[in-house]
Amino acid sequence: MSIYTRILALSCLALLSLCGRASAQGTIVVASCGDSLAYIVGQANRNVAIDINGIQCTAASVSASITGFPGTQTTGTPISVTTGGVTGTLPSGTEVVATNVGTTNAAYCKLGASATTSDQYISPNGGWFAFTVGAATQLTCITSTSTTTVNMVGGSGLPTGTGGGGGGSGSGSSSITSWGGGVLGAMANYGTSPGAVLVPGVNAFVTNVNTNGQATMVNSSPVVIASNQSAVPVSLAAVATGGSSTTGNIAANNTTAVVVKASAGTLYGVQVYGIGSAPAYLKIYNATSATCGSGTPVKRLMIPSAATAANGAGSNITFGTSGVAFGTGITYCITTGIADNDTTAPAAATFLVNVDWL
């Protein structure tokens, strides 16, 4: 046998050996595990199947069971929670359910010896949270305000329940006494249209109106005039109270000053009349008292002379709606001379003076 014949024979034997192995244990690529062609027809041995991602397919059955909480229940000592944080010892069990049984304030809890208000929030009125204990032996809870109580129950399994914290029972109603860590105000009627409704306590700065009378700008509610309204119509109404006061006198035959108001005030008008053949002069001072013929008057007004005593003469003088301010007081004198230092007394029963002031 030549060398070439031997090489050809050995090659055929090797090829037959590989083909036999492939037939006995082949590899099949399937679109996804569970597809057909898991066997080669005519072969008793199962072939290895892989999906198009190169993952080997395996036939198996899986079963699992989950038990409910608590299994064997243990109860811990309730934690009386404050704003300073209080630590309690965990009851035994792989799971511990912490329940906030307080009615008003939320609790913030964490496994270990410390907690802050950034930790697990547990709402009041039965809100709860299940902690997986691990190696922890303590639970610490804290409040953002006032106090509350947290109960602890230990056990194992999957905790189930309503969740508390005002969770619905199917009736659609709930009692919410806090929001965002703060206590809500008492419920009260608010509004009249379309109907009064109950709402939590409303900020007084929103609902309260200013009391009548003057107020500083910062304490007043602004009034906005529409852009197409060039003026605000205002009408005067007669009232039984308010307005200015009036003081009337018949000038006496002397130069004694008349005190209209012995404190700061406003002069709105003067009416003067006379029946004398010569004029007289009304001199008004910003003072609580005066000596006629001394000092400087604020106002000087002439009472005109009359052509005849039967007809008389007079003047009606107004100082507008703002009036004239007198920072000390309102006092006047009547003399028959025009000069400020004149002290000549008027004739008796000759001149009338009315002063409107506030």
Number of strands: 24
Number of helices: 2
Structural class: mainly beta
**Distance between the ends:** 149 Å
Strand content: 25-35%
Estimated helix fraction: under 10%
Give the name of the CATH architecture of the domain at 245-357: Sandwich
Uncertain residue segments:
4-24, 38-44, 165-172
Largest sheet: 5 strands, antiparallel
Radius of gyration computed on alpha carbons: 52 Å
CATH class of the domain at 245-357: Mainly Beta
Average pLDDT score: 81
Instruction: From the 3D structure, determine the CATH topology of the domain at 245-357.
Output: Jelly Rolls
Shape: rod-shaped
Could you give the order of the helices and strands?
A: HEEEEEEEEEEEEEEEHEEEEEEEEE
